[in-house]
Amino acid sequence: MAAAWGYEAGTAKWWRSSASHVFVLPDPNGKRYLRFVPDAYRGAGPVAAVSALMDRLAAAGAAAVRPVPTRTGALTATVPTALGPMHAMVVEAAPGEDLEVEDLTEDRARDWGRALAALHESAAGLDTGLPTAFAELAEIPDRFADDPVLVEAAARLSDRLADLPRDRFRFGVVHGDFELDNLAWDADRVTAFDFDEAAASWYAADIAFALRDLTGPTGDSAVEHRNMFEAFIAGYRGMRPLDDADLANLPLFAGAHGACSLVRITRALDATGDDDPDWMAALRTDLIGLARSHRELAVAVAEAF
């Protein structure tokens, strides 16, 4: 796949796999990252939509990494492989360093909130062809037909989301995963580099998912992180509107995210094999535990709303 950008075989080195497989590309002009997904997981259209969004945001001066064109000038490439077609893009490295929750200060949390608000402002009005968030909720009645409590919870969450306004101040293009793991910090400037979950959604939903490391089991701010949570919100509100109704709905969005994540996890768990290596069995165990916690979050939030 890296050959589409002119790199020789063996140049790309595996870095990590999550929503995309990510490989490092050493380059004389600075480190780059090759990102790709199997066609069976995500089609060429959504990958192209993400790369186009990133390109337009970077061109507008937003804090987003820029995609690197292929040798033919395209922002993405579809490459046939022995495992099926793969859809790939290459992005520049984001300047700065990664931060963990333990590294946060109130000033940094405020900058984090400002950065997300600025990204929402930059993406406002873009016609991107991105999917609409929370589509997985529709799968729950069939996929979890033997879990009536979860099915009822998903119905409540869907009904509440359907009642929410979608005006341009509340609904638009969102990053989808603006947590610390997907950001680089250069002094007080924050750059986002992972847009795999970009979608059309409520801006408050983007906030809820970004802050999940700072929240408790029902989506409210955790006591030990309350100052950071409030600093983030203050930073966001200093850049764009976020009224009390939006803020009150953060747990609702956290619950809906939990339900959708549960669907994605169970899709992965559907792929079983008799000859799974030990690491795969360990991963499966971890995912089962994660699925349980997402279910508990979705049910608890639905009952509260």
The total tally of domains equals: 2
Fraction of residues in H or I helices: 40-55%
* Low-confidence spans: none
H/E element order: EEEHEEEHHHEEEEHHHHH
> Architecture of the largest domain in CATH?
Alpha-Beta Complex
Intertermini distance: 47 Å
Q: Strand fraction band?
A: 5-15%
CATH topology of the largest domain: Aminoglycoside 3'-phosphotransferase, Chain: A, domain 2
User: What's the average pLDDT?
Assistant: 93
Q: What is the molecular shape?
A: globular
Task: Please give a handful of descriptors for the protein shown.
single chain, 305 residues, alpha+beta, Phosphorylase Kinase, domain 1, Aminoglycoside 3'-phosphotransferase, Chain: A, domain 2, 2 domains, 9 helices, 41% helix, 15% strand
Compact description:
With about 300 residues, this protein is of the alpha+beta class.
Describe this structure in words.
41% of the residues lie in helices and 15% in strands. The protein is of the alpha+beta class and 305 residues long. It has two domains: 2-92, 2-Layer Sandwich (Phosphorylase Kinase, domain 1); 101-304, Aminoglycoside phosphotransferase (APH), C-terminal lobe (Aminoglycoside 3'-phosphotransferase, Chain: A, domain 2, Alpha-Beta Complex). Strands 1, 2, 3, 4, 5 and 6 form a six-stranded antiparallel beta sheet that branches. A hairpin with a 6-residue loop joins strand 5 (77-79) and strand 6 (86-92). 36% of the residues are buried. The model has no long low-confidence stretch (mean pLDDT 93).
